[in-house]
């Protein structure tokens, strides 16, 4: 049986501009830039993954990973046209 994974579709407004500028290059973060945002991998245990790197995962990214993992999601598609959620802070561009 193939492994099927869940994905959270989330607005890029949940990332501040200074994090967006280097999200794909951030140590400890696996994120792929797309046309409209990023595809972010969610570790099985975001807190543990955050502490295993020499540079900590930004708090805002860790909050997104925790939120997604609590919903059972393995990935987050950060998209400019996706919905915002009340549980995470937002920034304007």
Structural overview:
The mean pLDDT is 92. This protein has one domain. A hairpin with a 3-residue loop joins strand 2 (31-33) and strand 3. It has a four-stranded mixed sheet, covered by helices on one side. Helices cover 24% and strands 19% of the residues. By secondary structure, it is an alpha+beta fold. It has helices spanning 17-20, 46-51, 59-70, and strands at 7-11, 31-33, 37-41, 75-79.
Low-confidence stretches: none
Instruction: Give the beta-strand count.
Output: 4
Helix content: 10-25%
Biggest pleated-sheet summary: 4 strands, mixed
How confident overall, as mean pLDDT? 92
Portion in beta strands: 15-25%
Spatial strand order of the main sheet: 1-4-3-2
Q: Give the N-to-C terminal Cα separation.
A: 43 Å
Q: Which structural category fits the helices and strands? A: alpha+beta
Domains (count): 1
Please tell me how large the radius of gyration is.
13 Å
Write down the overall geometry.
Answer: globular
User: In sequence order, what are the helices and strands, one letter per element?
Assistant: EHEEHHE
Contiguous helical run count: 3
Pfam families: DUF5983
Organism: Virgisporangium aurantiacum
Protein name: DUF5983 domain-containing protein
Domain DUF5983: 7-91
């Amino acid at each position: 049986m193939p492994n099927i994974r869940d994905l959270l579709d989330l607005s890029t407004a949940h990332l501040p501009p200074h994090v967006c500028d280097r999200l794909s290059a951030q140590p400890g973060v696996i994120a792929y830039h797309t046309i409209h945002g990023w595809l972010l991998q969610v570790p099985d245990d975001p807190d543990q993954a955050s502490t295993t790197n020499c540079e900590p995962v930004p708090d805002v990214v860790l909050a997104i990973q925790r939120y997604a993992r609590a919903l059972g999601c393995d990935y987050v598609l950060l998209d400019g046209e996706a919905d915002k959620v009340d549980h995470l802070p937002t920034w304007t561009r």
